[in-house]
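Q: Here's a chain of 718 amino acids. Please give me its 3D structure as tokens.
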Amino acid sequence: MPSLLKQKLVVLLAGGSALAALPAHAQDAGSAIQLNTVVVQTDGKPNKQSDGVAPVKGFVPKTTTTGSKDAVAIEKIPQSVSVVGRDQMDATGAQKVDEALRYTAGVFAQPFGVDNRADWIYIRGFDATASGTYLDGLQNFSYGFGGFLIDSFGLERIEVLKGASSALYGGSNAGGIVNYISKRPTGERIRYLEAGINTYGNGYVGFDIGDKASETVNYRVNGKIQGGDNYTDFSKEFRGVISPSIQYKPDESTSLTILANYTHLDLTHGGGSFLPYFGTVVPTEFGRISRKANFTEPDIDSYNREQGAIGYEFEHRFDNDWTVRQNVRYGIAHVQEHSLYPYGYEGYLAQPAAGDPNLARINFRHDTTVYTFLADNQLEGKVTTGAVDHNLLFGVEYKYFRIDQMQQTGAATVIDAYDPVYGAPQGPMYAPYIDQNLKRNQIGAYVQDRMEFGDGWIVTLNGRYDYVNTDAKGLPSYSDHEGRASGRAGIGYEFDNGVTPYLSASTFFNPLIATLGNGDFAKPETGVQYEAGVKYKPRFFDGLITASIFDLTKQNVLTGSSFAYEQLGKVNSRGFELEAQANVADDWKVTAAFTAYDLKVKENESNEALIGKRPYLMPEQQASLFVEYKVPEGVLRGLTVGGGVRYVGSSYADEENTLKVPAVALADLKLGYEKNNWGIDLNVTNLFDKDYVSGCQGVYVCSYGEGRKALLKIHTKW
């Protein structure tokens, strides 16, 4: 990494920490704002957009903006919604988004083990990584190797809307979306500093500073600098992240919040992935491949990411209680990568030939730049017709995505899977097979009517129409346009005892960027979801319990490889989800989840033998429990003890369902102590150091899960 850039990052981070020296202004006003926040968190009845992005008290969320684009109590949403707040992230020791979601129902996180370049997230059996991730309500779409990496240190909360969401968000993942909510100014004094180091010698320093600059201006800036070794051989990284934000609030009806972020990441790739089934899940004649082995070339391997984004959220509430909002973000990311990775044994075999322990390798390089611009314009208001109260939302959203990308492969030598020797000269790189400039423009108009009547009835109707135009020049070239409508209808009833049963049906579409083997452009994925569930807010303790069953069908599923796609598939995901989050008392916090799927291929015209089979990689059961207890008084006052268990059921490594990946149960531990605004925490994941395979995306692409990792951190606030 250039020394000048390192110096800039250090200056930025040091400058943010220096803000802690600023005096606090208008403490009375800050206290009033804090009081308002506490009231909202207690009664669960949001009345402004900021309530839906506020910090979560303990483990139990009250409101969401993801489920309806306006701030609303979670029980009013006719779909399952999960929220992971900052307290839960810290309790479980999460350092990445996918780590934070390991205790969430309906979510399969880290299917490929640890990947410090990305967060891999599946929801209800479908990959949300490319089209199902959002930052502050605006899509973080990615294609190829072009996308944005969001550091969890800068997040206040992570929200998951499960199931079809196109009626609100347009083209997106069939299984649901993940919305990252940024830390932002609150008008309160924030002074927080954290430093930590893990088992591998990877350390970091992070800060979070906020305050009132004047009666109408609030600010906040957080950042992190991190570096050191990672889990597998030769894997190391250096990263810096900074996220400044400022809010102008001239009165209670108007606010303008500017949010920005910058990320630099230099790393060498980790191993433990792209490994064959034979040699990981089951041994070969040579035994099992080491989970820490790395089969790249250390002298060649590199990864560099530079990305930045800036945007704003504007809101004004008129005297008649109608509100206008505009959320805008512009982003740019440049990613360069060069690595060698395994692809089966010598000769590209799934199993080694007798006496031959060598792995085949692919020499891969890309250079990718992404530009995005997103704007979501909303009008929200309330009207009453007879005995029905309508909460109306109208919106127009524009999405622009451009990617300039070059991808190429080159000649590569084989390497011994069980005793690797590095340094052999690699062959020349071949001509690029992708050298392309691609642009996508999407515009959508949507409407929502949430009707409440009869002392408890809630009916929600959504409709949206999107037009998508894709144009690619270079290698390969193509052009396509699609127009699609999506809808959602839901009904629920809030009983006085806190129970809210609900039913909903929703349709979705997800426009693909792919050409088929016959030269045609791929049709959008489409489908429908039916969901029934119940949400329960107990009156005798602070908690939220959600149970749901669903039936989700996705059509136009791609099959085959990227060089010969076919679109002949239909996949059905049916399942049951149960999630409970509770602040049982001020000192006890609990989160628990259970997921059971029946995920099946329903159509595959190219290979009818696969009908009725489960798609590879996906487990059919998951369960988790995490409990944290803080000693409130006595000689041990300030001591925190916590722990969790995560169970991931078995999955398959092949389409035919003949090769199984075993289930695994993992234990996590949390110990902490706080006194006089200082604290120290120890988090240990995979406490018993289980050696396991997290999943296989075919017999050539199996990934080890991470071994035992301890993270020790100290923190202070003032």
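Q: Can you summarize the key feature?
A: Residues 27-43 form the longest helix (17 residues).
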